[in-house]
Amino acid sequence: MKLGFLTDYSPERVRFARATGFDCLELHAQPGAALDGQDWQSVKRTLDEEGITVSALACYFNHLEEGKEEERAAHFQEVLKAAPRLGCDVVATMGGCTAASRESGNIEDSLESFEKIFRRHAKVAQDSGVKIAFENWPGGHPAPLLINIAVSPAAWDKMFDAVPSPAMGLEYDPSHLVRLNIEPIAPIKRFAARIHHVHAKDTTIKTEVLNEVGYIGQDWWHYSIPSLGVVDWNAMFDALREIGYDSGVCIEHEDPNYMDDNFDEGLRIGQKFLSQFVK
Predict the structure, then answer these.
(1) 27-72 per-position pLDDT tens digit
(2) Closest CA to 110 of 119, 118, 101, 102
(3) DSSP letter string over 165-200?
(4) What's the CA gap between 179 and 181, in Å, rounded?
(5) Distance CA 90, CA 172 (A)
(6) Cis peptide before 166 (omega within 30 of 0)
(7) pTM
(8) Distance from chain centroid for Cα 192
(9) What is the chain written as a DSSP string?
């Protein structure tokens, strides 16, 4: 396994990654990201000079947003085809969500559109030697469907039944499962063949607040740097090793206690803690 973090591209972030002891990066590649429009040969040279690999590219947007499907499909397929130029074989994304699903709260109301779009994407991915990894972010508070139906094991089953290509898989993030009160370790074995990339993010649960406001209340949880929340990282990495996972593990830093001038300190804390598991 290689340890990295999710970031916009810049030579400075590549140098920081190496100096801090990271092995890889996950780079934003959605429209408007810093990587968009770059000379990818130059980017690859910068990465190679620092000994940093790209474990995944990230295109986080709603593939099923009415009126924007084809525009986003074209961009996503460009990224799928171009990823190997950076030595990368994973593109992470969201599962998408239709207006009907947002209104009803039912994932099933997005499956027809999901199948239509991702059958095409899966073929491009397979032809390019690339895998698609769905981040399991559940949206806002407490968990409305916004741009992503890929939020739970039940949803994953439906998605992979709809598009059974082996290119389709997960960017497995335990923090979101914790937030939804889903045990975060057990699904790793069940979806072993589908875990294409891993996010290292923790969740802090404020039990006293939760007991006052309940699940639909506010401010009873927040995302945190690995080791500062409730995820059992020893069990997490034991499970990943058991299934033979040997790809990128990237910190997705969203800890409100380490923002602005302290952002990189959060990454350093995460790197120091996680490095014991990635040897």
Answers:
(1) 999 999 999 889 999 999 999 999 999 999 999 999 999 999 999 9
(2) 101
(3) -TTEEEEE-HHHHHHTT--SSHHHHHTGGGEEEEEE
(4) 5
(5) 13
(6) no
(7) 0.97
(8) 16
(9) -EEEEEE---HHHHHHHHHHT--EEEEE-STTSTTTT--HHHHHHHHHHHT-EEEEEEE-S-TT-TT-HHHHHHHHHHHHHHGGGGT--EEEE--B--HHHHHH--THHHHHHHHHHHHHHHHHHHHHT-EEEEE----SSS---SSB---SHHHHHHHHHHS--TTEEEEE-HHHHHHTT--SSHHHHHTGGGEEEEEE-EEEE-HHHHHHH-TTSSSSEEEE-TTSSS--HHHHHHHHHHTT--SEEEE----TTS-GGGHHHHHHHHHHHHTTT--
Nearest CA among 14, 150, 12, 165 for reference residue 92 = 150
Q: Which domains does the chain show, CATH number per domain?
A: 2-274 (3.20.20.150)
Amino acid at 123: K
Pairing of strands 221-224, 202-205: antiparallel
Q: Write the pLDDT tens digit of every residue in 149-160.
A: 999 999 999 999
